[in-house]
Amino acid sequence: MPDLLLELFSEEIPARMQAQAAKDLERLVVGALSDRGLLFEGAKAFSGPRRLTLAITGLPARQPDVSEEKKGPRLNAPPKAIEGFLRSAGVTLEQCERRDDGKGEFYVAVIARKGRTTAEVLSEVLPEAFTRLPWPKSMRFPGSAVRWVRPLHGIVCTFDGEIVPFEFACVTSGNTTWGHRFLSHGPLGVRRFEDYEKTLRDAHVILDADERREIILHGATQQAFALGLDPIEDEGLLDEVAGLAEWPVVLIGTIEDRFMDVPAEILQTSMRTHQKYFALRDPGTGRMAARFALVSNMAARDGGREIVAGNERVLRARLSDAKFFWDQDRKRTLESRVEDLKGIVFHAKLGTQYERVERIVALVELLAERLGMDATQAKRAARLCKADLTTGVVGEFPELQGVMGRYYALHDGEDADVADAIRDHYRPVGPGDHVPTADPSVLVAMADKLGQLVGFFAVGEKPSGSGDPFALRRAALGIVRIVLENKLRVGGKDVNDESFVEGVLWRHWDNVIEFYRGTDADLLAAKKVIVEHRAGDRTAAKRAADARAPDTSPAGWENSWNTANDVEAFITERLKVALRERGMRHDAVESVFGLERMNDLVGIVARIEALQNFLKTDEGSNLLAGYKRAANILKAEEKKDKRSVEGRPDPALLHLPEEKSLANALSAAETSIVGDIQAEKFVEAMGVMAKLRAPVDAFFDKVKVNDDDPAIRANRLKLLARLRATLHLVADFSKIEG
Amino acid sequence: MAKARTFQDLILTLQNYWAAQGCLILQPYDVEMGAGTFHPATTLRALGPRPWRAAYVQPSRRPKDGRYGENPNRLQHYYQYQVILKPAPKDVLDLYLGSIRAIGLDPDAHDIRFVEDDWESPTLGAWGLGWEVWCDGMEITQFTYFQQVGGIDCDPVSAEITYGLERLAMYVQNVEFVYDLAFNERFRYGEVFHQSEREFSAFNFERADTDILFQHFKDAEKQCQELVGGDGKLALPAYDQCIKASHCFNLLDARGVISVTERAAYIGRVRALAKACCEAWLETPMGDYTPRFG
Prior knowledge:
The complex is a heterodimer of chains A (about 750) and B (about 290).
Chain A: E1 4-10, H1 15-35, E2 42-47, E3 51-57, E4 66-74, H2 79-89, E5 96-100, E6 105-113, H3 118-131, E7 152-159, E8 162-163, E9 167-168, E10 171-174, E11 176-178, E12 187-189, H4 193-202, H5 209-226, E13 230-231, H6 235-242, E14 249-254, H7 264-275, E15 278-281, E16 288-296, H8 305-329, H9 334-338, E17 345-347, E18 351-352, H10 353-371, H11 376-384, H12 392-396, H13 403-412, H14 416-424, H15 439-458, H16 472-485, H17 500-514, H18 521-532, H19 538-548, H20 554-581, H21 586-593, H22 601-616, H23 618-641, H24 657-678, H25 682-690, H26 693-702, H27 710-728
Parallel strand pairs in A: 7-10
Antiparallel strand pairs in A: 1-3, 1-7, 2-3, 4-6, 5-6, 7-8, 9-10, 11-12, 13-15, 14-16, 15-16, 17-18
Helix pairs in contact in A: 1-3, 5-6, 7-8, 10-11, 10-15, 10-17, 11-14, 11-15, 13-14, 14-15, 15-16, 15-17, 15-20, 16-20, 17-18, 18-19, 18-20, 21-22, 22-25, 23-26, 23-27, 24-25, 24-26, 24-27
Chain B: H1 7-20, E1 24-25, H2 40-43, E2 52-61, E3 77-86, H3 92-102, E4 112-116, E5 119-121, E6 126-135, E7 138-149, E8 152-153, E9 159-164, H4 165-173, H5 189-207, H6 210-229, H7 235-254, H8 260-283
């Protein structure tokens, strides 16, 4: 079956857009063909600096013929009706069939629609598909009525080797393309994908981005190896440079020694962002080497000597700049830069970076007290943690924030722990990043993230749908990971202790609202009430708010109350997502969250883990079945009686041995479970529950709950209610599926 | 293809090359500006339907880039070579590569690349899509297809080519310190400009009187608004005032007296002026759709 070859040849397409554009092209064309009944064997899209290519194999030569039947009026229908039918169906009376449905004869128009040739369909659907290609940024250009990423110069479109004619963006399709911008001259004729790929290769164009990537990786590794070095892995950079060269040639350049005492992070970032070079490292020492790998798009006559010399010269200028900043920056201490933060706006509604730092310091104190950690170093680190934002290096390379702060802190003679905390307080940056573990780092990292969450929520900048411009999801997840991986007991274990939210979030909420003094009296009044009632319930707080500040607008009050709760819910939501990603059953997660407020994340997770493991055992699944049976009976009977079952079963009314032994088992279990949970022995608590399986099974086997004697029936229902209550000490089993 | 051996050779070569492509060879505009784009031959001529082709050298002032003559490649005053082609010809990249060959950079021996770099001037309300052109890893040209100027769609689309002359010359002459460039066979760049870099850096960062500058900014803004406000608009004189305001802002920025929040507000004020000038320009005969003369 015939194949389709399609190429859109343009001026240089931004590297970051190429891969997605190829995917989109494939999706749109494939979709358009399927919609028109054209199925095929295979499709593959390619992208590169100047072209998007799509090859589709095994397309039929034409669409299948289809015949369509249209039921018409009866033979004896008024002539007008028959005429109308013929007109709408586009047939004559002679072309209609007559059929009988038992109630009389009627006309049927059988319309045979001949499939069109695939070429014809292609010339119609392709231009339409191209206009729908969603470039992240596209442009108008002279002569074209449609937008494209950059001016379009040529379209190859052949089907079964023949040109499929159409026009798009003032370009007429044909069978001509062009090779490498400098290493190939003149147009190239192509017919099918096989000769196309080879023709391009001969014209110094590697069509497939994966192959270009491979050439670069292999070239860099080989040439580095010859020097006893390794390329430092950088997938993102590899993808990018593979999109910048049609004919990648790896060359090695040298970094002058005088730059090698500049921190490696600066060298590497400068080379990467500005020049797109790969840094190399000495595998023996792990240190960065004074060499770099560059990828050119040129097989130069002199073997690339001039190209390397030119690149080295550019790098010298770049690194001179970087070194200049590095030297300048160290002339001032971080401490002296803290004041400068007053001139940098953090967010229009949240003040300057200086004010942000003040809040972080306050939060560090709160957290340290809560976690029983020493706050001295953390407070010092918190004070300095944003000071590197005013340095030249961070101005040039924002991604080095924190990293540079550490260098400057060490240079100033700050404690190593303080310096590390300055660097690590941004962590974890991504899912693969480590979580800080040293106390000062943990404190500053948590404080910074909590500050962000509370601050942005307070001014109404919550993430919505896909929009999360301030990376609040990452901040919340960061908090969750720091707490869990360090096993921090942020909330009190006792129910009467202040929870994490009460003790930290809402007290900090205080700090944030201070901001509004004089600008928003409502919020200020509301804040006071909220802080006083943070452990109380909503209605009581509202009543108090009304009494204290009768002028407070309901909206202002609602707002603050909701915000504090929203932050809690937001962190909880991230925790649930994190747990699901760790493979926890969502129903197990929900069943524990159904009982507990977010007092103590570590305890909650330990409980979920124990529960999930228990549910995997025979005892677990059988006990769950018993629970469900009990719960169902209770539900049905409570509905019938129109009241819930309350009170403990009366031992005197227990007659059968099975109900007696269940009652005894429950008494024993309850005491142990309460004790185990108090002691956070969740696995042991599950073990206690496992022992309930036999008496529960025996009970349902031998005992009829709905006894004729109402007193006995009521007592047995109480027994079941007790079973339910005992299991609910561990988790809300009603939320567990299965 | 002899290399342009001196700085002025480079300029002369580009002048001849683009003259041969049918460009008007214009002269620098006589108001201080941050880039060749501000020249009315680009900003205003990029608007409206009339075809236009021009090339010129534009002295460009970036007060903040002053380094007291000590940095090997940063200057607060430097030269841009600016080409504007309207509408952008289909073979404009080939034309551009021709100019690179003309100055003696052989694309077959070097690594010439077009790397995504979309240009935007918040003060002019202008933006376009294009690339920075790399030669062996160094940016030698900014290439832009104008999409909007003064917030107004460019139709037809122009191509703007901006060469950083010092940088390009340093590459061609194989010089690492800008002041070592041969301006001609006798004089070095430093002999012409080193003292002025030192003095202007001190002016930009230390001595420029900020009260005067704030006043100049206000005056220029007021004059500009008056010229485009009522009847009898004068687009070109108004636009001069807009450029002056922009330069005052750049100086104030270098003096470090404009905070981050104010910064956005000042840029917005200049943009409003630029927009008003561009709109006024479109009402003039040269900017209008129906040519009335010429």
